Structure formats: structure tokens, C-alpha cells
Amino acid sequence: MSKVKVGLVQMSCVKDKQANLNKAIEKIREAAADGAQIVCLQELFTSLYFCDVEDYDNFDLAEPIPGPSTDALSTVAKELGVVIIASLFEKRAEGLYHNTTAVLDADGSYLGKYRKMHIPDDPAYYEKFYFTPGDLGYKVFKTKFGKIGVLICWDQWYPEASRITALMGAEILFYPTAIGWATDQDEETNKDQYNAWQIIQRSHAVANGVPVVSVNRVGYEQDGAMKFWGGSFVTNAQGKLLYLASHDKEEVKVVELDLKESDYFRKHWPFLRDRRIETYGPITKRFIDED
């Protein structure tokens, strides 16, 4: 299959987990009605972004994967004939939790999960309090509509993660994400932060010759202190923006990608061919110094 239609769902969330799941399902239906074959939801879409505080009660939001949410989405995937990428708070065992994305194929089958590898610990993003770093490695999922690589939010800053996923055969990189602006920041800072976020992900498309789909949440949370900046986007395999969402509205958008472009761009810009892999050993060091 050379062409595939990807759907992104950029939405705001409320405290009610079931209400968020129901809303996401409605928007998946909307995307499928517009022709989407793969639909990506934003990071932790069943809840508000709870990592702004360190609160033990928030662990009650977690669930097993597979579990109730994947069961509900599996039914929808099978009914609509679409692949669903669903970012969830996983309870793996008592006291062991991950930030995890499940992938459901177009026949409703559960293909597996990816556990977020890079875990931030910044003001209002206290993820290390909740999430154990992923231990499944980087993952590629063979779906009805192509081989897809899934990474999660903080992973998006790391070219190593995108490179490895692309080298595993991913034809598209998907990033469910949740990032925003503190509302007491000035506009110039806001603009600089968003541009950095978008640029780094578009560079993954260029370096690897694969399309990138980044899906962010939108809306005010944390009692108005945080504005999740939306700005979800889709690029082709050369990093060209094919779609850019707004910063303040819920959106469902379907974009057609031509997967044959990867071969074209990789031939004309042969970055994969010209990699000097024998020189890359030092990258496994924390820092290259004498200590």
C-alpha cells in the first residue's frame, strides 16, 4: 500500500475518564467517516494531565493493557476498519506503572504496546513520580495499513529514538504528546518553545526519510495555569508540513500520506546510506570526557 490516510485527534479533556474515552471514540468515528485508516490519539487522552502534581490518588487512573480501554477501542477499530493508536496510563503490577501506547489493528486485534522510554521531571511535569521507564525497547507495529513506529511525548526530543525506530522499518512515526505553555509566560517564549518542539520532530522526518504525525492535547488545565498548545501536525518524508492544527481548538483531521515518497527522498538525500555507523560507538557514553 503506497498511500495511507492518517487521522489525528486533538482534543481537550475533563476529569471524567469515561467521558474522555467516549469523546475520543466519537472523534475516531468522525475521522473514519472522513476516510482515516490510522487514527492517533493524544498522550494520556482518558484524563486531565495529572502529572502536574505528585498525588498518590492519581495512580487510581491507571489500568492494565490490554484492559478496559483497549477492549472498548478494539470494538471500535473492528467496526470501523481502522488502526487506533491509544496512549494510556498502564498499571503493570502493584506499584509498577508505565506511560504506554497500545496499538489496535483494523480488525480489532491488539498488536502490542510501546512503553515511553524518556521520562521528564520538570515543574508541572512530574512524570518520574508516576512512570517507570519503558523496558520493551523501541517498537514497530505491522498494521493492515503499513508498519508504524510509535514514540511518546518526551521521546520526541531524542533523535536516537526516532532513528532506531526508523531503522526497524517504521514507515510513519507517530508521537502522542501532551505539552503546553505556562500561562504566565510571555508570547515570545511561547513561540520559541513551540517552534523548537515542531522543528525537532520535523528534523526526524528529514533525517530518516519518513513522515511524522504528532498529536497534542489542547485547552486550559491545572486551574488555568497551563495552556496545552495543540499545534498538532503532519509532515511528509522531507519534513514538509502537510497540516498544522490550531493552538486553541479541538480538531479532527485526516491527511493522506504517500509512503513511496520515502524511497524517493532517501535516494535523493541518502542520509541513511551515508551513515558512518562504525564511528558512532561513543554515542553510548553519557558525555565524552576523560572521566
UniProtKB/TrEMBL annotation:
Tell me which UniProt keywords the record has, alphabetically: Hydrolase
InterPro entries in UniProt: Aliph_Amidase/BUP (IPR050345), C-N_Hydrolase (IPR003010), C-N_Hydrolase_sf (IPR036526)
Q: What Gene3D superfamilies does the record tag this protein with?
A: Carbon-nitrogen hydrolase
A Pfam family: CN_hydrolase
- Please list the GO terms describing molecular function: hydrolase activity
Entries under PROSITE patterns matching the protein: CN_HYDROLASE
Please list the residue ranges annotated as the CN hydrolase domain: 4-259
Q: What is this protein called?
A: Carbon-nitrogen hydrolase
Name its species.
Answer: Sphingobacterium thermophilum
